[in-house]
Amino acid sequence: MKLNSVFIYFVFLVFVLPVIAVAEPLNTCQELLCQRENVKDVMKRVVAFQEEAFGDKVVTDWKVGTFYSGVYAAYSATGDEDFYHAAFDWCERAKWKLSGRQFFADDICTAQTFLDIYLKDKKSHMIADISRALEDYFGKQNLNRNEMGWVPWKGQEASFTGRHLWWWCDSLYMAPPVLSRMYAATGDQNYLELLHGLYWDTVDFLYNEKEGLFSRDQTYFGKKTPNGKPVFWSRGNGWVYAGLIRTMDYIPDDDPQKRKYLDLFSKMTDTIVKYQQEDGLWRSSINDPDWKPMKETSGTSFYCFGLLGGINRGYLDKKTYLPVALKAWQGLLECINSQGRLGYAQLVAGAPANVRPNDSIDYTHGAFLLAASELYKMGLTKEDFVELREPYDIKLLSQDGAWTWFNDERVIFDGDGLYIGSNDSHGTSRVDYYSVAKAQSPFAYQPFALSSWQSKDDHNNPALLLLDRNTILACYTEHNLEKQWYYRIGKLGGSASFRTIDWQKEVVVKAPAVTTYNNLVKLSNENGRIYNFIRCVGWNPTILISEDNASSWQEPFDFIHSGNDRTRPYVKYSSNGIDRIDFIYTDAHPRQAPENNVYHMYYKAGGFYKTDGTFIRSLEDVKGNALIPSEGTMIYAGVSEGRGWVWDLEYDKSGNPIAAFINSVDGAVGNDLRYRIGRWNPDENKWEQEEIAFAGTHIYAREQHYAGGIAIDPENVDRIYISCDVDPYTGNRLPGGHYQIFKGYYDGVCWDYEQLTFDAQVDNIRPVVPRGHKCEDMVLWCRGRYDTYEDYETVIVGIINN
Predict the structure, then answer these.
(1) SS3 per residue for 153-217
(2) Which of 116, 170, 408, 713 is catalytic?
(3) pLDDT tens, 522-553?
(4) Which of 17, 301, 391, 446 is disulfide-compatible with 368, CB 3.0–4.6 A?
């Protein structure tokens, strides 16, 4: 690289990157930063800077050993002899000798580079010292404190086990790669057996299965941050994560233990990626970034290496994890100066600590070189970036919000824009407007708060109804907290690209019981009568009617019940807006009904009917004598393939109902949910239903039957959108284990699926397709962290493909 272009490159890093660091995960900036000549240039600068800092001193401790393991990796990736000579010369000056105590993992770290060069050059003197040192590992029964230095275990001696020898998590980088390399160098199976025994005893001791992270050592068991979270050190887990890659490189694929290492690597990956911050880096307290908020590059470099190395070796899915790795790479380059000094590196420590911009140290440069080497080997091209981009342009439609699937319409489309109802992270029920006009103004997105109160609960998202072209109705509740519900009427103004809504005063409507859910329908053949289906009377589905365009509401009455006030049907509603309202519903919540069935009925002209048109009862009769589930038409019997739960309901072109629902194959467990579609066949006068996809696991532990979600496209019922954390064809876990959105196509025989999202860090759940759209694709969903219905940080995103 010429001097001028190098200067421009680093000016780009220093002055441009901070402005665009929040760009899309795969972008033009990253494409430039991943070009091989740029990656190699920055590697050379890092090596030159660090070797100048060393001067003439010859040090063989773990810090320098880590640096030179990165230098040799740079040679392996690039083939540049300068890197080889740098590593080789250091080994020569170190006389191929270890730095001290043979049983202390830090003191054998240098052997990694000795062995790397030996595996190339095969000169026995290169590994003679390490061979002698490791001889004493075999058959050893006890460890003496004097052989180790400081240890946390009590007494003068301890048994020769992993938890005593490798008592701190850093050691899983220092020593295991040496043992696997010794196996590669000698072919002696004893090195692998020694490795496996020590390694898994250490993991059993230090790994927290629930948190997916390693404690630094036993002195941190039970320790909490000031925010009450367990203390997990970022670089400590980085040592383990990077060490896994370097250890597995020399464990044969047919070794029965290899699968265990891969499983641990996969679990750690899932945990690590969710803690990446917006700038692409991690913090020194990985799981509590607010405690030590300064960015930190030593842990980040190891994570970046692990992600890129995992992708290169086929351990990790490229499309899922590469955006995370490149975001980390971009963040690291923001912390490096034109001389090659990587700042923000936590200095020698054993726990999370604050760092400063100028903090720099050799082992962090080594970790950075490991990451850079994997990126260089990847050899990303413009074509790779094109291929790795998500197949559709996913737009941010609402900057904060979540919803349940029992409030409809959650989203309405008026031909100009989307009105999106949600409950945001502050607990405000709201409507956001997003213009779909091609020539959007800066005001194309408009947020509108509805509720006078704040109650964070996704059940509180409003249901929306266009009363006419100029008026919108929004109804909302506080989930089971009050014997009342709320509504506002808004007057629409402005243009498609600058919508205004003049919301009238919030109206409070008293109710005989606590309320939740709102579902709005207006029938033109009934003089514009409005129905609001809520849950209220006896906790059952309840009907509210307005004859005067929502100015007043009649007394509510429950219209379907199945038991006491804690066992209630769950209903999804659909209407043609003219003369008919359809219902699919269950006996109860699936947690309460092991044989939860799915039924259908419809309302028309003052009466309720079975699917085939058989009259059940009149609306007036139902007011004093609620329907029971079995009076409708059964679509699915829960006794057959597990309890059911309803999700969506639409009409085909002939006006026949199409139902989407789930069943739980494993009953109350909810780890094997399936999506099903039911179609009414008027010729056969029956429902035909079938399983169409694996849905995966429930989205959180307290609700074993909350699936990711399924939505039928009302404009084409042979197209659906599903959210699942497994492959919809096979049920195998998706890379990362997060919920992704799939588009399904029905060809009259079977369903085919196209994956639309590839998020490694967040979930994509609860898709919905607005009625009346004329797009090739229009689907919205919640993206972000969703832990429970009261604990979420999500935005509303979607695809609008005209």
Answers:
(1) CCCCEEECCHHHHCCCCCHHHHCHHHHHHHHHHHCCHHHHHHHHHHHHHHHHHHEECCCCEECCC
(2) 170
(3) 999 999 999 999 999 999 999 999 999 999 99
(4) 301
Backbone angles phi, psi at 171, to 5 degrees: -60, -20
Mean pLDDT (the chain, rounded): 94
Name the residue type at position 488: R
Residues in the chain: 802
* Helices and strands (DSSP H and E) totals, the chain: 20, 37
Q: 692-710 burial, b if ≥16 CB within 10 A, otherwise e?
A: bbbbbbbbeeeebbbbbbb
Q: Which amino acid is at 7?
A: F
| Residue 12 confidence (pLDDT) | 35
Q: Yes or no: say if 658 and 650 are a contact pair by the CB < 8 Å rule.
A: yes
- The sheet with strand 709-712 has its strands ordered as 709-712, 719-724, 740-746, 751-755
Q: Which helix (H) or strand (E) holds 533?
A: strand 529-535
pTM above 0.85, yes or no: yes
b/e burial code for range 409-427 (CB count within 10 A of at least 16 → b): bbbbbbeebbbbbbbbbee
Which residues share a beta bridge with 419? 412, 433
Which DSSP category does 17 fall into? Answer: H
pLDDT in tens, 511-523: 999 999 999 999 9
Would you say 427 and 456 are in contact if contact means Cβ atoms under 8 Å apart?
Answer: yes
One DSSP character per residue, 78-96 reads H--HHHHHHHHHHHHHTTT
Q: How far apart are CA 498 and CA 397, in angstroms?
A: 15
For residue 82, what are the β-bridge partners?
none
Tell me if the bond preceding 793 is cis, omega within 30° of 0. Answer: no
Check whether 712 has a pLDDT greater than 90: yes
**Sign of the four-CA dihedral 475, 479, 485, 486:** negative
**Is 170 designated active site?**
yes
